Amino acid sequence: MVHDTIAAISTAVGEGGIAIIRISGPDAIEGIAQIFRSKISLKDADTHTLHYGHIVDPKTGDDVEEVLVTLMRGPRSFTAEDVVEINAHGGVIAVKKVLDVVLQQDGFRTAEPGEFTKRAFLNGRIDLMQAEAVIDLIRSKSDRAFSVARKQSEGVLSKRIKALRQTVIELLAHIEVNIDYPEHDVEEMTNLFIRDQCDSAIDEIDRLLKTANEGKILREGIVTAIVGRPNVGKSSLMNVLTQENKAIVTDIPGTTRDVIEQFVALNGIPLRLLDTAGIRETSDVVERIGVERSRNALEEADLILFVLNYNEPLQDDDIELLKQLKDRPVIAIVNKTDLPRQLEIEVVEEAIPADSIVRMSVLEEDGLDRLERTISEMFFEGQLESNDLTYVSNVRHISLLKRARQSLVDAIEASDAGIPIDLIQIDARSAWESLGEILGDEAGDSLIDQIFSQFCLGK
Amino acid sequence: MGYLAGQYDVIVIGAGHAGCESALAAARMGCETLLLTINLDMVAFMPCNPSIGGPAKGHVVREIDALGGEMGRNIDKTFIQMRMLNTGKGPAVHALRAQADKVDYQYEMKKTIEETPRLTLRQGMAEELIVEDGKCVGIITKTGAEYRSRTVVVTTGTYLRGKIIMGELMYESGPNNQQPSVKLAASLKEHGLELVRFKTGTPPRVHKDTIDFSKTEIQPGDEKPKFFSHETESSNNEQLPCWLTYTSEDTHKIINSNLHRAPMFSGAIEGTGPRYCPSIEDKIVRFADKPKHQIFLEPEGKNTSEYYVQGLSTSMPEDVQLGIVRSVPGLEKAEIMRNGYAIEYDAVVPTQLWPSLETKVIDGLFTAGQINGTSGYEEAAGQGVIAGINAARKVQGKEPIIIGRAEGYIGVMIDDLVTKGTNDPYRLLTSRAEYRLLLRHDNADMRLTPTGYEIGLISEERYNKFLRKKELVELDIERLRGIKVKPDEVNEMLTAAGTAAMTNGTDALSLLRRPEVTYAMLETVVPSVPEMTEEMKEQVEIQIKYEGYIEKQLVQVARLNKMEKKRIPDDIDYSDVHSLASEAKQKLALIRPLSIGQASRIAGVTPADISILLVYLEHYNRVTAARGS
Questions:
Q1: pTM for the full predicted model
Q2: Which of residues 106-165 of A touch B (CB under 8 A)?
């Protein structure tokens, strides 16, 4: 227990503020060094130092977030263990993303309620007088966590996790019965059977993880950047969407100089709109800052609305943008369809799939419904029923689901490699346990119960 | 009418599989020991199936042997068939199973007991415990003999208030129509032990000459039998086959039309039966969709015509039993020699025990075997050896021996029983072990011989042999790590084995990691030293091949051990632990776990409770330390 490394967001999570992710335990420095890119490796850094750098997703190699990292080597830390604190800015999404990457490290798990304080106490950092306070803290935090968990366990999510667990436990029971009753006339365990069961469980986990994204989107909005050359109608589009004149709209190119955020609901789909300065090489200093920010916004966006003018031939800037936006979640909005066509639409169609090109006349508010449909298709496969979705929202749940998924993948790989079933069982069992942790169930006797209810055994 | 009949260190009540191991262990450890049995002809009797071993159970027999117990040696002397099961699966679940000659088994065990110094075998029925100042100091028999002792081990099996049930017929009896032990139950209760009612059953036996074997499939033993005991090197025992057949549609019809006469369903049986060995009527009702069930015909010995009909355990009335038996292909003309029956008996709620198997309420009183709510000869013997060891150690003023969950199935079983209790007769399954890969059949000696030696049940000679084996295995692994093999030396062999050829050289150890490559194959290229036995080679192969998985489990075990090492003082008052949930307070006060590890396995004790307990203990220890200085 004390050997694990624990992590948790240790500040109240709020939009836009700075959040701290605290990590404590023997692998804290080693683990974070793996995902933190900075001038000097954390492993070599002195204690009580602050480092600037980026959290990197080790799987993709992509930057997740720009952060400041504090390093405190034990015993001179709050818990008397090695402690790393990641200071992230940029709100809920970014912080959760960072925590998600942190928890994928070997030997890392989410901290239990009050666990940092508990460790501090057990390691002698907190004096005896405070023992009761520590106990109260653990109790109250656990009770709160428990009441949240209970609420969730009554919900649709828990039903789906339970069903998922059932799939895994049936596989387990089948393996166990093959082992404990080798002469019994039950179906021999085959690679195919293991594969089928694991695959179906993996599919379900993927569906749940996808709802995690959908859930996030519904809560926080699809971060949407509107890009395009100056004066193609970006701000007008935003104004139509928001029905408010937030951005400055003129017909002088380059008048939108800052990124303006705006939440809108487009037929139930929440968009967090980032209006951007027109993307164009420019010599104006003020505007250049705006353009720089736009580029950043583009990187962060879940969705990019690329506005083109139907009434003008493609320009170099358009073509440059088309290139940049390749393989990004982009919808091309061909604006000003009320005017005669001058745009080489074929060129656009080469870069962007036809079903992601929407023709509109923003001025006449024509084509908004098509835009809604296209976004819905893109993010919810057209099946957005906002009250009926099950959401996995909790980072701990997401990390446990991912862990379970990995165990199932391991089980399939082991099975393919001809590893005996009693070893495959180890992977399948850890998948079952990870899922159990989500529900807070006790593993207990239920496997044995399953074996004897699923199979007819006896003397 | 009472009289003082003798003074002993340890008294063992009951000479079944638990009692025999207890008495032998205690006597061999130097204690004057009395072994009492209701009937001297029933020593080490197998009232049910004529077999020993199988997954988990066979592992236990190997562990008993590593601890210096008798069951392994005894079955090696008396088997009439030996089979290694699960050979197509991983090494952890390979399991040896023997068919026993029931009479020989009893005879050999009785002989061993009779020849053991300091061990007195005596016929007599214990009826009363002598308890003075909360300590059990002896027993009184039906004939008024008062035996005094320092510790007592109770292993009553299914004799305690035993009741046989067969259809409408019901009578007080021990197994196989033996006299039941009735008054002892009252004495246990009177001294504060809570008892529950459990049930088990056995199938009919049929005469060999009335079986048509041509309608069944033969199930022979292994050509080269392996043995349970690490001491057995060879055997000349002749092997007999078992036979496989199935229930028919008629079987199911007969049972379904007679359910009203089945005590299982008529309400006559009050005891809880094992899920693991349901009767045939139970199976047919619960799994109505299953068209047929396996029936194994097993010989009960070389010199008898009795065949055990495995799969037909029943408590139906005699006439229905005959119909059921004769509905099975091959048994159409079978003559029943003994009926099947269900038997109810009293058991002790096992959460009343310490992990040493001593009861919490009566100092010096130990219980082992079926009385603790288990089923199976091997489970009984495994507890028996531990109870015997700890009863002797208590006499000698030593700390009890507790086998950890990562050390043996015996440890898993006892921890389950005393920490979680059981709602029906407990059977060991390999799935009950968290660290199955470490608790292998092949390494039982590696795990437990040092303990057996430490407590004085393993001889110096055997221990030295063990140390040499361990050393040779380690040396051989190092040797393989050091040997470089070139592609042209092994590629032919690799291709033949169906694995990829090599382009670069590698060490022999890496080669052995490949699933397709065996130690034997490797030996054709890099021969081992002559002293290496087959057993040692197997160890090397398993340790190398499954290293990755083994390492993973070792990490988990390290974590477990950390928790197990955090001892909870016996005088802790849980009602005093601020903020502990009330359910946790109750459960902890009842079980009185010895360690945080054990506490965390109690149902109803949450991780938050464990955290609170840890903080409380830290507080407690600091205060105690401060007072001390």
A1: 0.80
A2: 112-115, 118, 121-122, 128, 131-132, 134-136, 138-139, 142, 146
